[in-house]
Design brief:
- It is a single chain.
- The protein has one domain.
- Helix 5 (66-79) runs antiparallel to helix 15.
- The protein is mostly helical.
- It contains 15 helices and no strands.
- The chain is globular, with a radius of gyration of 20 Å.
- The protein has helices at 9-22, 30-40, 42-47, 51-57, 66-79, 82-96, 99-109, 112-124, 127-139, 147-160, 162-184, 193-202, 204-222, 228-239, 241-281.
């Protein structure tokens, strides 16, 4: 690869946006899960993932034949489609949580503090919010936030386990894109999937560090309008047995979704290049 997938800002931003929406998504029974999944904004975030294939593969346009590049990107978009991931996530939530738990989670999100948190998170996930986040990150070089506030945000990041989720999602996306790139530039030679997986695994400590810093800055920006008491209540919910069960189920569904669609992409790539090789030999 000419450029490490770890350096791809579009992928990083898309992955963070998904994770940001993941820990605010309220769900009840299966018939309400889809509606609340939509209302939470998570559907919109997952719909942004396919666009990263255009953004990331475009930098290799000079190295990959136009038709192959177009086909590889389209297969990525088709594999990482939102409806497929939605079904997996909603099913996992309904499997792992009782309706009583789901109702209690909804009650919290319907509270004054829950609504305020959701509003802030939704605003931060918009294109305008992302631009403001970048400006905020630049300001941190000269203007540090209050130490007590930073400590609370660090506590929230640990309690939510968002960093672990983002790292896993990013690793799965990097592997999928790495396989696509390797196959597109292999020129008929076999692709060593184990070597790509090993490269991604070896880079995980660096990825963990990058994502930890990115999420910390993002959370500092997102929750700056919460009072100390409001932020404490949010941390209390995330750290509670109910909150822990909820996020564990949700993270499980998101992680499973990305793994499954990644395998779907790999299978599509294999079949595509196998057919391409047959046509080249005839």
């Amino acid at each position: 690869m000419k450029k490490s997938m770890l350096e791809c800002s579009a992928l990083r931003n898309a992955v963070f946006s998904v994770a940001l929406m993941v820990w605010i998504t309220p769900v009840m029974a299966e018939d309400l899960a889809f509606r609340l999944y939509q209302d939470s904004g998570m559907q919109t975030q997952l719909q942004s993932i396919p666009a990263t294939f255009d953004q990331e593969f475009q930098q290799y346009a000079k190295d990959i034949p136009e038709k192959i590049l177009k086909d590889v990107v389209q297969m990525g978009k088709d594999s990482f489609d939102e409806p497929t991931m939605r079904k997996i996530i909603v099913a996992r939530l309904n499997e792992k949580l009782t309706q009583d738990q789901l109702k209690k989670v909804l009650d919290w999100h319907s509270s004054k503090i829950g609504k305020k948190v959701t509003q802030l998170e939704n605003a931060a996930a918009t294109p305008e919010g992302q631009q403001k986040l970048m400006a905020y990150a630049e300001q941190l070089a000269t203007k540090q936030p209050d130490a007590a506030y930073v400590a609370q945000i660090q506590q929230l990041a640990v309690a939510s386990k968002a960093i672990d989720l983002v790292v896993e999602i990013a690793a799965n996306m990097q592997f999928s894109m790495g396989v696509g790139l390797a196959m597109a530039t292999a020129d008929g030679e076999s692709v060593n999937l184990d070597a790509i997986a090993a490269e991604i695994e070896a880079a995980k400590p660096q990825l963990q560090q990058q994502m930890s810093q990115y999420i910390l800055v993002s959370m500092l920006y997102t929750y700056q309008d919460l009072s100390e008491q409001e932020l404490s209540r949010y941390i209390e919910f995330v750290s509670s047995p109910l909150g822990a069960s909820f996020y564990a189920a949700l993270f499980s569904g998101v992680d499973e979704a990305f793994i499954k669609v990644g395998k779907k992409y790999g299978k599509a790539l294999g079949e595509y290049f196998e057919q391409d090789a047959k046509q080249s030999n005839t």
